[in-house]
Amino acid sequence: MADDLGCWNIADLHAKARRRLPLGIWEYLERGVEDERGMARNRDALDALKFIPRVACNVENIDTSCEIIGVPSTAPIAIAPTGAAGLIWHNGDLHLARAAAKAGIPFTISSASTMDVEQIAEVGGKLWFQLYMWEDKELSYGVLERAYVLGCETLFVTLDLPVMPNREYLYRNGYGMPFALNRNNMLDVMMHPRWLLGVMGRYALGGALPAQANLPPNLKSNIMKSSKPGTVFRQADLDWEAIKILRDKWPGRLVLKGILHPDDAETALNVGADGVLVSNHGARSLDHSIAAIDALPAITDRVGGRMSILFDSGVRRGSDVVKALALGADGVLVGRAALYGLGAAGEAGVSRMLDILQDETRRVMGMLGLTDTGAIGSQVLAPR
Hints:
15 helices
C-alpha cells in the first residue's frame, strides 16, 4: 500500500488536516452539536461489534466490487455529500469528485456546495445529487432538473435536519453564515498561511469569494453576506406529501437520507423511495440520537430485500464498512473521512483515504475467510 503523504490510516489524514486548517474551519468539519455526545456514541456502537473469523479458507482473490443502488462500484463505499468542501480546499468539490471517479466509486454532490452542479459534473464518474429544500421550493425543483440532465443518477433527500442544528461553537468563533471576521478568528487565519493563501487567496485571485451554488446568479450570496430572500434552506414543512411531490418530479432513483426508525423506512418504501440512508448525520443534528449502526438491524429486518439500504455516521476503518454490510447495508457513505483527506492534501488526500478504506475492507474480508462482498452477512458478527 504505497503512500506519499505519510498517512497510513484515516487518523493520520485527520491529524494532517487539523494542522493545516484554521480552528473555525476545522471545528465546522469535525465537531457535532450541543454537548457532543453523539459522535462518541457512534464510535462506541461500531467498536462494540465483534467479528467471528473463519480460517483455512482460500482468500487469494478478494473482490470488493459491488452494486450500490444499481450502480457498479469498485468497493461498497461512496463519498457522502459535504457542503464545506470549498472552504477546506480551493474548489474542494472538484477534488472529491475526481478522486471518486478515479477510484470507480460514486460521489454525491451537495446542494449546499459552493460550486454549481454543472461545474462538478464536468468531472464525470458516477454522480449522485443531494437536496436540501430552499424556502423558495421552485429553486429546489429547478436544480433537480439540472442535476438529472447532467447525469446524476440518484437523488438523496436529507430529512434529519428539519430545523437548524445547535452548533454553538460556530457562533462563538465567527465561522457561522454569514462568516464574520473578529479578533479571535483573524489571528487564527493568519497563523495558517497555507490555508489562507491556498484557499482564500486563490478565490481572491479569481475575483470572487465562495458563494451559495445552484442558484440563479442574481440570488447568490458569498460567505460574507446574508442569504437573499427565498434562498435559505428551510425544511420544517418537509413531510411525506412533499416527498411524494419530489418522487413525482425526480425520474431517477430516490434515496431518503437520515432514516433511523423502521416505521419511517417502511413509509419511505410506500411513497416510492428506492432506498434509505441509515444515518444520524454524523451526530451533527440531534446530539442524543441513537447511534446509526444500532438503528440498522431493525431497518434491515423491516425493509431489507425490498429496497436499498445504505449506512453512514462514524466510519473510520474498513472494519466499519464490513460491520455495516454484515448488518444489512448495501453500501457505506463516508463524509468526514473524505474531508480529512481533502484537508490533508486535496485530491491526493481523498484518493489516499479511499485506498486506505478499500485496502482495509479487503484485509478484513480476508481475515474473515470471505472473498466476495455479497457473502458478508450476520454470520461474521458475534451475537450482541
